Each structure stands twice: as C-alpha cells, then as structure tokens.
C-alpha cells in the first residue's frame, strides 16, 4: 500500500510552528528512510485494537474510594441519611461564603477582564495578593515566590513532583490525608509513614520520624491543622520537627490548608514562619477557610530564605505549572478582593460553629460505651477510637461502620482510609441539629452492641472453672 505519511522534513518550518519564516533547518527523523516507514506501517497495520491504561494510571489509588467501594453501605430507609464522612463544608448549606466573597467573584465576572488565559503560574496581581496574605502568617514571600494552582491538591502535586527524583521517598503522617499516597504513584515516590501519637493530641512521634529518614528522603510532608485528626501543633513541637529537618537537610512540604481554623486556646503557626534554615513549600488555598472548595484556588508559597532550593526548582515549578496552565481565570481575578475584603467576623463565625460542634461531639462521644474520642483543636474533624473488643458482634471496624449505616443511616469514614484502623473520622462542619441527631443514633447503636469485656472475661473464667 502507498504510504500517505508526509515527511516531516518536507514541511516548511514556517508552517510547523507558525512563528518563523526563516529557511527550514533539516529535521532528521526516522521517516527519512522509506524502507523503515513501510516496515513500521506493516507492523501497525497488522496489530489488533489493544488500548490499555498506563501502569501509572492504574497504580494511582485513592485510599478512601478503594476502601469505601468495597463496603456494603445501604442506609436504613426509615432514617434520613447523615453523612459525617465528607469534608466539604458547603454540603449542608449552613456554611456559606459571605457576601464580600460572592461580590468579588461577581465583579470579576461582570468586568469581562478575566475570560482569557492567565500566565501558567498565575496572574501577577493575584500572586502579589497571595504573597501579602502569606506574609500575614509571618512568611517572607513576594509575588515571585507564589505559584497558583487548581486547589491545594494541585499545589501538593507540584510540590511533590518537583522534588521527586528517581528512587526517592517522602515521609508522610499516619494517620494522614490519603491524597499524599495517591499523588505519589504517578511521580514514582515511595511513601514512608511516620506516626502521630493519639495520647499526645496527635503530635508527631519525632523519634519515629527521624528513624524513617535515609539518604533517599526527598521531603517531609507535614499537615497542620490536621485532617483527619483535628489537631493543631504548638510552636515548640513544630520547632522540634524543624530541628530534625535542619540536621538532615530535608525540605518540608507543608499542607496548611486548614490554616487558622483553630479553636480558642490554640494558635496556628505557619511552619515557614519559624525557620530561616529549612526550605518550605507552604501549600494552601481558599478551599476550607473561605468555604469555596469548588472554586479551586490553591497556591505554593516558596519559602527559602537561604536559597537552598536552587534556581532549577523555581524554573521546574514554572514548567510544571504549564501542564494545565494554572487555576481558572475568574478566581485569579477575584482573589485580591477575597483576601482583603473578607471580614474577620466571617472566620470567627466559622470557628465558633465548628468549635461548638466539636465540643458537643466530644462531650457526647466520651460518655458512650466503647468509644474514645480525641478532643480536636481545629480543622473540621474528630477522630474516635473504637474499643473493638467491646463490640464482639463485628469482625472488624469496617463491619461495624457498615452496620452503623444499615441500622442508623450514619456514615463515618473508617480509620483505614487514613492508614489507621480502629478509629473512625467524623466531620464537624455540619449542621448542629444534624450532628446531635447523629450522636443520638450512635449512642443507641453502641448501647445495643457494647459488651463489657470484664463480664466476658469473668464468664470465660467461669467456663474454665466449670470444665
Ligand atoms: C489536608 C488536606 N489537604 C489538601 C486538601 C485538598 O484541598 P483542595 O480541595 O483545595 O484541593 C484537603 C481537602 O480536603 C485536605 O483535607
């Protein structure tokens, strides 16, 4: 059969790129040889349709989906479903962005000035506004240090990808946000977990973390305030972590998307504000604090007072941002106003409501048989330990969670989603009455299934004596 392939070298250069009318340089390709063209065509013509997903795509796993999809989750039709599982504060309609945030977006849309492409790493004015906002947390950054992204997930993706050298590993908290593992697959990073300690309000087990470092450790991923723990690290604890990172010369990827969602008596410290020595990618965005997760604006603030990242890190981040050309243009147009005009009272109200829910959930759960909640200090979550030995009717905690759904229509995410079986995570950014109703139902469930293990032990003893 006649070949219809046009030789690349026969196409004028001006037509291939549209920018130059200079004479075409010789472009050498494998198609220069007619024999090899027909050989390769013969091979492709004789092959069957066989379109496969790439191994990297198949290795990309979202642990939450992976676990939840294997579960039998059929709510009780008699009771309205209460999903305490989804970390989207807008889901129930009681946490909403304020008028100033909506006005900023409407003004941007009406201006018609932000319908076009923006620079890949973000519009200059928007990056300036984000840099000023980050400075309010004590970071020393300018517009040139900011890369805008499509939500914090994209910021984390780029921050991990830029440091992912072949064969490297990154340290990740356990329990922790499962996205870090999901992102690691496509960039070939091995994940090594370091423990958080429930008995110490989920502070990092610093010795454990240090023991996981080796010569291939490319970054420590750190999350504060924490999803799923709802913990907030005190300053001296953050300094302990920085001390380890400094001694071992390891940069930090700081996931601080819940920045400042902290309850009275606790304080948020941006880790980058506490160090001159350790380079930090601060990853955040408007998702949680401004209650606009769907608007998809995130950012990386490159904190590197001693220029340890080197020039190619910035160039590389810029190249990575060109893969999808930044977040949508409208949020870039609105962000300056959003960051400066949102009143403090808006944040205060969110914190008051989540704090009220957190206290209520904690105080109710701690009186329930077989449950041990750990009091949160911020973010939108509470972790609850289930004493499985007191619930012998269930083979494991996933079975208990399934039964809670089928009998009480209350769904909490199993700790296995966060590499932490034996716990469940409850979302607190929901309507108070709904939360209270969920508490009533969880209580009647635990009352129904709780078995006092001391009675079980005694009856075992009795059995033994009678035999
Ligand atoms: C700890 C943590 N990091 C990152 C993200 C992702 O945020 P975004 O929706 O802005 O991508 C979330 C979302 O739930 C989160 O909980």
Automatic annotation (TrEMBL):
Residues 14-34 are annotated as: Disordered. It is an enzyme of class 2 (transferase). PROSITE patterns: AA_TRANSFER_CLASS_1. It catalyses: L-tyrosine + 2-oxoglutarate = 3-(4-hydroxyphenyl)pyruvate + L-glutamate. The keyword Transferase applies. It comes from the Eukaryota. Its cofactor is pyridoxal 5'-phosphate. Residues 81-442 form the Aminotransferase class I/classII large domain. Signal peptide: none annotated. The keyword Heme does not apply. Gene3D superfamilies: Aspartate Aminotransferase, domain 1, Type I PLP-dependent aspartate aminotransferase-like (Major domain). Pfam families: Aminotran_1_2. Its EC number is 2.6.1.5. Keywords: Aminotransferase, Phenylalanine catabolism, Pyridoxal phosphate, Transferase, Tyrosine catabolism. Belongs to the class-I pyridoxal-phosphate-dependent aminotransferase family. Homodimer. Transaminase involved in tyrosine breakdown. Converts tyrosine to p-hydroxyphenylpyruvate. This is Tyrosine aminotransferase. It comes from Dermatophagoides pteronyssinus.
């Amino acid at each position: 059969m006649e070949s219809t392939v046009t030789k690349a070298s026969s196409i004028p250069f001006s037509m291939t790129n549209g920018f130059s009318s200079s004479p075409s340089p010789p472009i050498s390709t494998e198609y220069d040889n007619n024999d090899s063209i027909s050989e390769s065509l013969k091979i492709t013509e004789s092959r069957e349709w066989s379109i496969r997903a790439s191994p990297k795509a198949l290795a990309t796993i979202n642990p939450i989906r992976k676990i939840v999809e294997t579960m039998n989750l059929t709510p009780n039709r008699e009771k309205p479903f209460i999903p305490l599982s989804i970390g989207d504060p807008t889901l129930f309609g009681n946490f909403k962005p304020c008028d100033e945030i909506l006005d900023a977006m409407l003004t941007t849309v009406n201006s018609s000035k932000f319908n076009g492409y923006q620079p890949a790493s973000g519009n200059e004015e928007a990056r300036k506004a984000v840099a000023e906002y980050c400075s309010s947390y004590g970071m020393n950054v300018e517009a040139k240090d900011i890369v805008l992204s499509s939500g914090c997930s994209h910021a984390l993706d780029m921050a991990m990808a830029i440091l992912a050298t072949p064969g490297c590993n990154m340290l990740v908290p356990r329990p922790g946000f499962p996205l870090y593992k999901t992102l690691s697959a496509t960039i070939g990073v091995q994940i090594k977990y370091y423990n958080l300690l429930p008995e110490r309000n989920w502070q990092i087990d610093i010795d454990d973390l240090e023991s996981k470092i080796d010569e291939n450790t490319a970054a420590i991923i750190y999350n504060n305030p924490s999803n799923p723990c709802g913990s907030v690290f005190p300053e001296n604890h953050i300094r302990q972590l920085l001390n380890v990172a400094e001694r071992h010369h390891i940069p930090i990827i700081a996931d601080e998307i819940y920045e400042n969602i902290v309850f009275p008596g606790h304080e948020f410290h941006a880790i980058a504000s506490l160090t001159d020595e350790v380079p930090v990618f601060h990853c955040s965005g408007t998702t949680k604090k401004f209650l606009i997760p769907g608007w998809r604006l995130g950012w990386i603030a490159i904190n590197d007072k001693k220029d340890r990242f080197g020039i190619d890190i910035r160039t590389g981040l810029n190249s990575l941002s060109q893969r999808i050309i930044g977040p949508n243009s409208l949020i870039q147009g609105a962000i300056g106003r959003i960051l400066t005009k949102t009143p403090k009272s808006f944040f205060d109200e969110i914190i008051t409501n989540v704090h009220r829910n957190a206290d209520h959930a904690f105080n109710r759960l701690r009186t329930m048989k077989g449950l041990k909640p750990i009091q949160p200090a911020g973010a939108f979550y509470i972790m609850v330990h289930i004493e499985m030995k007191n619930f012998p009717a269930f083979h494991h905690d996933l079975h208990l969670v399934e039964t809670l759904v089928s009998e009480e229509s209350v769904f909490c995410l199993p700790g296995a989603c966060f590499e932490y079986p034996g716990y469940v995570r409850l979302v607190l950014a929901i309507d108070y009455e709904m939360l209270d109703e969920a508490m009533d139902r969880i209580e009647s469930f635990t009352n129904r299934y709780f078995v006092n293990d001391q009675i079980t032990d005694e009856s075992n003893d009795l059995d033994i004596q009678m035999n």
